[in-house]
Amino acid sequence: MKKKSANLEMRNFFLKIILPVLLTIILFSVSVFDIIIPAFENRIMDDKKEMLRELTDTAWSILEESEAMCRNGEITMEEAKQRAILRIKDLRYGNSRKDYFWIIDMHPRMIAHPYKPELEGEDLTNYRDQTSKKFFLESVNMVRQSGNGFISYMWQWKDKPERVEPKLSYVKGFKPWDWILGTGIYLKDVRQEISSITNKIFMLSLGIIVLVSLLLFFAAQQSFKIEREKELAEEGLEESREKYKALVEASTEGLIMFLEDIFFHSNQAFLTMMGYSAAELHKTDFRKIVSDTGDNYFEALLDGLELPEPYETQLKRKDGSLFDAILSHSVISFAGKKGVVIIVKDVSGQKLIEQKKLEDERESLITELQTALLFLHQPLKCCLKEIVSCNKGTSVKEAAQLMKEKNSTSLLLETQNGDFSGIVTNKDMSEALADGVDPNAPVSKIMSFPLLSISEQALVFEAAIKMQEKGVGHLAVKGKDDKIISVIGNKELLQVQRYSPSSMFHEIGKTKNAEEIISNRNKLPFLVKTLIECGVDAKNITKINSGISDIILKKFVAFAIKELGKPPAQFSFMAMGSEGRMEETLLTDQDNAIIYEDVSPGNKEKVEEYFKNLSEMVCDWLEKAGYKKCEGHIMASNPKWRCSLSEWKKYFTEWITEATPQYLLEFNIFFDFRSVYGEKQLTNSLRNHIDELLPANPPFFLHLAQNCLLYNPPVGMFGNISVKAKGEHAETFSIKEAMKPVTNFARIYSLKNNIKITNTFYRLGELHEKGIISDSTHNEAVQVYNFLMRLRFKHQALLIERGKEPNNHINPKDLSNIEREILKKVFSQITAFQSKLSFDFKGTA
User: Fold this and answer.
1) What is the pTM (predicted TM-score) of this model?
2) CATH number of 251-346
3) What does the pLDDT look like over 162-198, one tens digit per residue?
4) Are 251-346 and 380-494 equal in CATH topology?
5) Angle ∠(677,682,684) on CA atoms, nearest 5
């Protein structure tokens, strides 16, 4: 009987383990040699063709440049052609620097060939290779039909005329001179490369098969060992099963028994509590019935670890629902076997009462905050009143009477051309009365000027902050045409002080030292979480978040100046990256720099020493306030990013005129700079310098586009969300990386179209207003970015709420089904944005 059982086990082992592994090895081998390797070969050939196109386009630009010089009258046609020929003949590329370009005309005649000068000027109509192919004539026909294309033929090996090899060339016509420019690769080189890769894949595959075979042998050995141990354990359990069964069933609470770390029995109370039958429970992995958010009680207990008594956790029923339970355990021994009895008590009813109380308190707080936040997020144009104004010659008495009649706290003074030169407020009137000003004196005598203003598109909280920063009680409001359309004052904004964002600005604004700022900044995660729950758009959340960061930076710079003394030169403290775009999240590092006015060489050392001390103080304070130092050292404390206006212009000139994808990968965040503190004229001058350089350097946009296309949304082959397989943050995707394609999309089009604003939402808005992107592209891009940013904020705020460090790594399993489906559609739409970018800047979708 035992022999028959052993044979049956052996057959089952072969069918369940060995056979699937063998089939896997066979399928793996077939896929490698019939699918993967051919795909690699096609990919390599496509890459080589793309390389030929790009190299030819580069050389073709030399012809275009010389023709342009001729067309502009700088040189003659003959000089232009000779100039182009000399430069083309000198071009070399490839590992041995012997690959070259050649030129023929549409006759065809040879114009230039570095290794066949004897052909120059010759008629190539009947020129044939060793296979009698008239490939020069084919080149002409191909250019006439489609302007460019690939031809294959036999040709001498580089500079060795005695050796002839198959060659593939790409030709492209230059219509102004009826020339054809060509270059090619030897197919032997390509075949060698393909052969090298094929050999590597073969050796790797062979290694994998050997490793799998060894693992299979090891698994077989271990499986037989486990089976033997299992048989012995089952025999021991059978002896005591019936004796303990009566004891377990006698309990009115849920009870589970284990012997020798193996599930032995549970009573009916536990089965009813969990919704399982006895047979189903025997097949259940007990580690999975504990909530994902809790510690693994059963695993820890069976491993002999000390656990608190009683132990509170959540258990998962068969239907997936959770309930709160208290677990307690006792160690037992029977027939020399160690075991444990676990008593399970359902306390979900009590927990529900406590949870309901907490939710009621939370909902009450959210309801109170929502009313406030909705008001804060309204644009000023929603709460404007009619302008009350008079001319400058109106008497103080008449002006006061007019303010009383209109129930207004302010009065604008008109000029002869219809503009406004100043403002008189109820405060000005009170001070005039106290100072004994003649009531018949012109009201201009007591007016306040210059007139401070704000856009009607600004939010209510922004107006309150500006009033506070400038120490005024009223602001003129400008419309879209930059004309004053109203005045808003403290009376309208008095209630703002009750709302959390404004309160944070107010509290930080009145701080006296860095420690107070750090304390106030700790409130930010809760505020952001509340804004998310209130349904506030990501654009406004980032605006508030970055606004708080701005005021913190301003205060730190002010503290440093107070300690160090007056700066020896005008300067601006700049923000870059996410802060430069006003898109900071709850996990952000410092991307900042200092730009100061050009100074004489004699003062350079003194100026540098001052700003070195200032930047180190500010960056250290920012770190203590929760803004981590940049791992790439892109901070003002780095002397490279703390320099004069002229030096900054040199940096950007180099990045733009000598652009490479690697350059831009490292420095593209610098194009999002903005001034946070100091002289904005310095950053404006730098921005104007960039705007002058960009139109004259088209290759910059090509390289920037290539850089943008390096970031792909995390989508797998079948449209599923792709996650990191192993290592740190396994089973997650980076929401930060997923958002980069949208940020890059807005940046490259804004730089191309001279849009100076840095915020992604506003960049998209201006691109839409200028007709650069369509209604649908604008709406979809805004919706995509808004969804991703809100998801990012929500993830970080929840981590902070749980006492964990915020990060940008999201596990799709933590999202709801709706969020996952929306996320898939969002990533699909990002791919469409990248296709448009590729087509517009590279000419290929």
Assistant:
1) 0.47
2) 3.30.450.20
3) 788 898 999 999 999 999 999 988 888 777 777 777 7
4) no
5) 100
